[in-house]
Amino acid sequence: MKITGFIWLEKIIQKLIWKHSVTVEEVRELFLNSPRYHFVEKGDRKDENVYSAQGQTDEGRYLICYFIHKADKQALVLKQALVLSARDMTSSEKKRYGRK
User: Fold this and answer.
1) Is the sign of the CA dihedral 53, 82, 30, 18 positive or negative?
2) What span, in angstroms and rounded, lies between the C-alpha atoms of 22 and 67?
3) Model confidence over 36-46: pLDDT tens digits?
4) pLDDT tens-place string over residues 7-29
5) How many domains, in total, are found in the chain?
6) What DSSP character marks residue 61?
7) How far apart are CA 50 and CA 61, in angstroms?
8) Whole-prediction pTM value?
9) Residue 49: Cβ-neighbour burial (10 angstroms; 0-12, 13-18, 19+)
């Protein structure tokens, strides 16, 4: 999976900052630094499933981001992530991430 763009909702950006102390820039870094993707659950709409991306920021912070993968059917190239949440990985998630 290759993400080439993001869809940001203002209420999600505020939640990332307020609740998880994660910035938009850190989420972008996570996706640029070759994260590991995992299917989380089937979405409410066709072709809008929820995935997670696990990885590190440029500063080495371990994050997990949940997003809806949205492919632009007309461009066939643009693969966007509608970010739902992002937070620090738990210690067990870090261990699992380190083993792969």
Assistant:
1) negative
2) 15
3) 999 999 878 77
4) 999 999 999 999 999 999 999 99
5) 1
6) -
7) 23
8) 0.87
9) middle
